[in-house]
């Protein structure tokens, strides 16, 4: 990325030192230094303000960095999505495996720890949903393509948009059935094999 170099060049062109630019940007001198040395990247508001201060277009300021910024953002989203997905699946697994034994041992009191685990599932689900909405991905194919760091072409995207309502309902029904079957199996095993 060359945004840091361009910021430094345009700052020098206006005969401003880092402190002067920092004052105009309402940030610290260290922030300007980090941008110029590419230790961090300015957010979109800062880029807009830089464009205004330097009296140049956004294109002149960022040029080829937009694609690289999008790659970095997508990479971070993919990592977050994988993490939240794993955590949600782990919580669902714990919920399914522990529901039967806890209910048989504790009765209605088992709903307290199970409720806490269910809240964790909900939390990770909301986080995943936010990433999906931000990147406009819903169907299985869109998610898999996104997690591989790619995007669908326009024709494929339109086809997937048509599938969204049906796939969402199918996934919800399938997830409910699998959870129910697994929970009943655990309860059956606990009652008949372990005598709980």
C-alpha Rg (nearest Å) = 25 Å
| SS summary, helix count | 9
Mean pLDDT, all residues: 79
Give helix and strand order, one letter per element, not per position.
Answer: HHHHHHHHH
N-C termini distance: 62 Å
Instruction: Indicate the proportion of strand residues.
Output: under 5%
Detail the poorly predicted runs: none
**How many beta-strand segments?**
0
Principal-axes shape call: elongated
The largest sheet, given as strand count, sense and whether it forms a barrel, is: none
Estimate percent helicity: over 70%
Computed structural class: mainly alpha
Key terms:
single chain, 196 residues, mainly alpha, Lambda_DNA-bd_dom_sf
Notes on the structure:
By secondary structure, this protein is an all-alpha fold. Helix content is 80%, strand content 0%. The protein has helices at 3-13, 18-25, 29-36, 44-54, 58-62, 65-106, 111-134, 140-147, 154-192. The termini are far apart. Residues 7-61 form the HTH cro/C1-type domain. InterPro entries: Cro/C1-type_HTH, Lambda_DNA-bd_dom_sf. Keywords: DNA-binding, Membrane, Transmembrane, Transmembrane helix. The chain crosses the membrane at residues 83-102, 108-126, 169-194.
């Amino acid at each position: 990325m060359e945004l840091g170099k361009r910021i430094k060049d345009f700052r020098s062109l206006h005969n401003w030192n880092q402190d002067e630019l920092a004052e105009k940007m309402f940030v610290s001198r260290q922030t300007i230094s980090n941008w110029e040395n590419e230790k961090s990247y300015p957010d979109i508001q800062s880029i807009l303000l830089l464009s205004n201060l330097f009296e140049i277009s956004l294109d002149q300021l960022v040029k080829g960095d937009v694609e690289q910024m999008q790659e970095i953002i997508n990479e971070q989203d993919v990592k977050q999505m994988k993490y939240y997905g794993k955590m949600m699946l782990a919580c669902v697994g714990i919920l399914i495996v522990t529901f039967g034994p806890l209910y048989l041992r504790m009765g209605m009191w088992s709903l307290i720890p199970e409720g806490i685990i269910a809240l964790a599932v909900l939390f990770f689900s909301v986080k995943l949903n936010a990433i999906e909405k931000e990147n406009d991905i819903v169907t299985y194919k869109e998610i898999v393509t996104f997690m591989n760091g790619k995007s669908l072409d326009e024709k494929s995207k339109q086809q997937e948009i048509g599938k969204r309502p049906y796939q969402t309902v199918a996934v919800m029904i399938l997830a409910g059935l699998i959870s129910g079957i697994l929970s009943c199996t655990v309860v059956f095993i606990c009652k008949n094999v372990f005598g709980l």
